Amino acid sequence: MGIIKLKNIRTYSYHGCLIEEGKIGSDYTVNLEVKTDLRKSSISDDLKDTVDYVLLNRIVVEEMAIRSDLLEHVAHRILTRIFEEIPEISRIIVAVSKLNPPIGGDVEAVTIELEEYRS
Hints:
Radius of gyration: 16 Å
Largest sheet: 4 strands, antiparallel
CATH superfamily: GTP cyclohydrolase I, C-terminal domain/NADPH-dependent 7-cyano-7-deazaguanine reductase, N-terminal domain
CATH class: Alpha Beta
Strand content: 25-35%
Strand order of the largest sheet: 1-2-3-4
């Protein structure tokens, strides 16, 4: 088995409960970790034998472009879509961070993290 990590995928998205957040938008980062079997690809050196991280990145970017009130909802959509499109993945950890959130304080980021195993 093995782990593939995509770190600090940056997007400008429009999530949040406030009307202004849906109009103005904000900077986000997403960290993604997936568990899959990397033994075959480590020997074959062939993309068809592994999980393509270009596809993982595209899924994250596309799901981040769909507005949600809650970061938890966005993260769940990312998890669900990855499991649907990439059957070789057995576990996913996704962390979605809103940078400089409008919460009335000096906070660098708010992050939610979800972890799911294929059932």
